[in-house]
């Protein structure tokens, strides 16, 4: 683990937010690509350049419902002096074109149908009598109800130049063109293009599988009864939701009791389905901090197959509030990254946004610019100055008003204040050296969700 | 159907984009709420005001790992003259508090553990000798490795006022407080709060189930071979992805051949799992426009259980490009809304963004402000003026640069240009009365994805 050599002082060194993040991003690597069905690849990052195999459209085709004609036959046509043509049949979309349009002839043609040989242009049905021998019509009768529309005569009321209402083969993309580049994130329009050029599957980095577990013998599943001294487990719910929100497939394991052996075996069990493991709680300086106890020795062992096969988890103090105690490292034979977050609800959520989300999005192969939450500058809107501890970067909860360019603190700095968190949409960043921020000061904000 | 009475002229009336949208939003109603497990409710809209049943925290508890003490016992303590206290045991988180801290006594206490009776404050472990009889320590040894830490003597090096490092019962939220209001969208922080107050399930509007089918005998599944005159089905893939993106659970039925009876029975089959049906293709004036053929008579019939039980589907011309032909109405015994979009890939995608997305988000119960894509004003960045047909609102594809405040057109106006669509992130709106837009003009843009 790079950190172990860079920071030989280990426990004593207080890590900056940037150092801890850098260590995580230096360690986490994008997942190996796999071939996925198109709709399973939604939101994923393409790892191949996609070349167009066949031109789009693959053949000259009509952009209108109308009649395929020879330009000379309709030259000078008007409603008073229509061109009268013999209808030789229908060309529906998807029907192979055996029809030929000779001089004095027309084929009834539908949008997207191939232009028959001999024809040079399409006149929309609204420019004709639709074969009824009366005035202009507004559309065709359904073939199933009126098959005679595909025969007889049609009167054309307006001329059409060669190529009028014809979409040329290759006018969208040509065979050999680059359709999409490696690195593209596949949203609906990109999926449209891939399907249109015939790609049923595509090579992408898969969504990371993130296993979320909270630790603490005091934790009770919501909906059950609390005994004395117990509280509800909220972290495993919040972080599972946050992991999905970041793009992951998230598995909530729920609360694990404060017993190192139970925790180790739970983690070992979960490794099989994890590209990343997130724990909460048990990382501080207490006598029951089980995550620290269970994982501190990992990586020192000779274990080649269990969780000990990773490079180990290091527990650190960060110059940040909330979120001071953090663990990070890799475990198991696949060197699966593990982030051990503190247990207070606000601490764990803020830590997720700052450290886990970028890790998830790095696993997805997203470009560096897209792995973090967006940030902005905003004017602090509050009645009195807010204090912040020296030497620690503080993240306060706030509501951001994009139009006014302001941010208003919500609730206090306590890392247990989950109600305030639920009413915030931004984190207000107070730098390490700042101990007080006056109302009206411009501050950095991290924009959530 | 309100439209049938409002616009008795039916086929002849050319609908504005706003009129068509208004008809859709007047018809579509938010789905009936259901009780969902917390994590299944992510992204959904709450329909109940949530009141806090028990205060948070539910009891006074420690915010630090340290020692619970009586304030008088540590008054004046210093490293030179420490307060020496008898350790009466451990209070771990989740353990019910049978311990009592009397004069001259301390209990070792963990973050989140209930403050024992008699104790008034917590001194962090770093302010003590940790019971080792030496200098200040940086943490506790694990209880499993050193159970003696819960007994013996501890030297406290600094005083603590009453309530120091104690989180008061109810300091986050109090029983009876309003936790969240009806109408709140449940993201990770809101899920955190609901879990924290013990809610295992919550009453929300579910995600709408959207069935997507494309129509056209020319359509081939991507990955298979194209015969002459055939093209790949891209709409059913693109719109399934777009429906998910809007918040729906989307089912892709795929391409249905141009046969009215097949289409009717396919739609009838799918009704059981649909809160909304989207079709593409077959809505224009051609002789094989099967959606129009199959659904025009729906609603006129006496049918009480089949698709005819709805109020019917009306086919319209819209003053818009692309996307002129559109169908909308309700079908089946549940009066399930159906949007019949045109078949050109760009037309169907733009129609989805303008009409289906707001319908999906209305079904979800989102507030009016959140049902549409965000829009912005931007300066048109292009070499020459762009033309637009009079009387139709045009939506051109473009790339938006938020920092520069500009939008650059991508590709032409052809509704078959799916490659350009895949490289766009905005729609440039050219109003009905405008026939030419000069470079440098400020335009409205719809921001995609």
TrEMBL record, chains A, B:
<dbReference type="InterPro" id="IPR005110">
    <property type="entry name" value="MoeA_linker/N"/>
</dbReference>
<keyword id="KW-0500">Molybdenum</keyword>
<comment type="similarity">
    <text>Belongs to the MoeA family.</text>
</comment>
<keyword id="KW-0460">Magnesium</keyword>
<dbReference type="InterPro" id="IPR036425">
    <property type="entry name" value="MoaB/Mog-like_dom_sf"/>
</dbReference>
<protein>
    <recommendedName>
        <fullName>Molybdopterin molybdenumtransferase</fullName>
        <ecNumber>2.10.1.1</ecNumber>
    </recommendedName>
</protein>
<dbReference type="InterPro" id="IPR036688">
    <property type="entry name" value="MoeA_C_domain_IV_sf"/>
</dbReference>
<comment type="pathway">
    <text>Cofactor biosynthesis; molybdopterin biosynthesis.</text>
</comment>
<dbReference type="GO" id="GO:0046872">
    <property type="term" value="F:metal ion binding"/>
</dbReference>
<keyword id="KW-0479">Metal-binding</keyword>
<keyword id="KW-0808">Transferase</keyword>
<dbReference type="InterPro" id="IPR001453">
    <property type="entry name" value="MoaB/Mog_dom"/>
</dbReference>
<dbReference type="Pfam" id="PF03453">
    <property type="entry name" value="MoeA_N"/>
</dbReference>
<dbReference type="GO" id="GO:0005829">
    <property type="term" value="C:cytosol"/>
</dbReference>
<feature type="domain" description="MoaB/Mog">
    <location>
        <begin position="211"/>
        <end position="362"/>
    </location>
</feature>
<dbReference type="GO" id="GO:0006777">
    <property type="term" value="P:Mo-molybdopterin cofactor biosynthetic process"/>
</dbReference>
<dbReference type="InterPro" id="IPR038987">
    <property type="entry name" value="MoeA-like"/>
</dbReference>
<keyword id="KW-0501">Molybdenum cofactor biosynthesis</keyword>
<comment type="function">
    <text>Catalyzes the insertion of molybdate into adenylated molybdopterin with the concomitant release of AMP.</text>
</comment>
<dbReference type="InterPro" id="IPR036135">
    <property type="entry name" value="MoeA_linker/N_sf"/>
</dbReference>
<dbReference type="InterPro" id="IPR005111">
    <property type="entry name" value="MoeA_C_domain_IV"/>
</dbReference>
<dbReference type="GO" id="GO:0061599">
    <property type="term" value="F:molybdopterin molybdotransferase activity"/>
</dbReference>
<dbReference type="Pfam" id="PF03454">
    <property type="entry name" value="MoeA_C"/>
</dbReference>
<dbReference type="Pfam" id="PF00994">
    <property type="entry name" value="MoCF_biosynth"/>
</dbReference>
